Amino acid sequence: MGNLNYNHLRYFWAVAHDGNLTRTAERLNLTQSALSVQIRKLEQRLGHPLFERRGRQLHLTEAGRIVLDHADAIFATGEELLGTLREAGTARQALRVGSLATLSRNFQMEFLRPVLGRTDIDLILRSGSVAELLRALEALNLDVVLINQAPASDAVTPLVAHRLAAHAVSLVGTPDRLRGSASLADRLRAHPVILPTLDNSVRTGFDALVDSLGVRPQIVAEVEDMAMMRLLAREDVGLAVLPPIVVKDEIVGGVLVEGDPLPGIAETFYAVTMARRFPNPLVRRLVQPAHSLETA
Predict the structure, then answer these.
(1) Longest dimension (CA), the chain
(2) Mapping DSSP to helix (H, G, I), strand (E, B) and coil, where does residue 82 land?
(3) Which one-letter DSSP state was computed for residue 238?
(4) How far is CA 24 from CA 33, 35, 46, in A?
(5) Cα angle, residue 70 at apex, residues 67 and 73 outer, rounded to 5°
(6) Does the model's pTM come out above 0.85?
(7) pLDDT tens digit sequence for 191-247
(8) Following DSSP, what letter does each residue of 144-167 receive, concatenated?
(9) What are residue 100's DSSP bridge partners?
(10) Taking a C-beta distance cutoff of 8 angstroms, is the pair 15, 24 a contact?
């Protein structure tokens, strides 16, 4: 097999992501026939058909899926190289951080504290869902993603999950609710609780704990966003099941107090990066003390 023509590969890559020859041809300012010729030349070089047509849509064959995985990696590496070299030699450095929209703001501030206030850094912060953030990370639009659960990965898009911290979870509420002494079981029977949603590992641990205690607490709210849990606790809606770091300012100010720690339950925070040939040196400094878990 001769050398691979990367122009042919790029045309295939564009069509594979669009799933439509006409749309890709218009976007690239080519005729459909010219684009089809480029795809056929790549197929001849590789010795396999890459698409099959179903109606008006193009669908990848098994060989096409394999080629697309490699093309994604090849062109992402090229963008990474260009981005790194564009910034080389400049006085300022860019740091692009994505955070799960529901993550504790206090935790995010602790992570970013080493670079806050530095005049030589452009700090770009984005938030979103885990899926959105990991897609941006793989596309090299982010340098690091902050989430509370280690992601799955594969050999094509190797991710590294740096375990930053595991904060113990407690009952948190107003001083009136947590006044006096009581057993954990009695306190849970006496007060409504504000819980994370069912897809949260803290909720899984809490449900197991109350089952072992023989308690069926009154659930007043199930909340995805830690910031909203903090506000509900401040409004004295009930006792929140939270890591105290989330309400650090309220505890210092006496608005809320930390009550019973919940044995065996912790919120774990991760910084996720890509295994890159040209990693952002700022990220390396931020995650250096952490314990890294390869998820590839």
Answers:
(1) 80
(2) helix
(3) S
(4) 12, 9, 22
(5) 150
(6) no
(7) 999 999 988 889 999 999 999 999 999 999 999 888 899 999 999 999 999 999 889
(8) EEEESSPPP--SSS-EEEEEEEEE
(9) 128
(10) yes
Q: In which element (H, E) is residue 269 found? A: strand 257-274
- C-alpha to C-alpha distance for 131 and 151, rounded to whole angstroms: 10
Cβ proximity of 293 and 160 under 8 Å: yes
CA–CA dist 82, 263 (Å, integer): 49
Strand partners, 268: 166
Q: For the chain, what's the residue count? A: 296
Identity (one letter) of the amino acid at 121? Answer: I
Structure tokens at 235: 């409004």
In sequence order, which ranges of 97-225 are alpha helices (DSSP H)? Answer: 105-112, 130-138, 184-190, 201-213
The three-state secondary structure class of 3 is coil
The three-state secondary structure class of 270 is strand
Distance CA 216, CA 238 (A): 15
248 close to 106: Cβ distance less than 8 angstroms? yes
Residue found by looking up tokens 């050999």 in the block: 155
Residue found under tokens 């452009």: 122
For residue 171, give Cα distances in angstroms to 71, 91, 105, 176, 268. Answer: 50, 47, 19, 13, 17
Q: How far is CA 268 from the centre of its chain?
A: 13
The type of residue at 60 is L
Q: Bigger pLDDT: 224 or 139?
A: 224
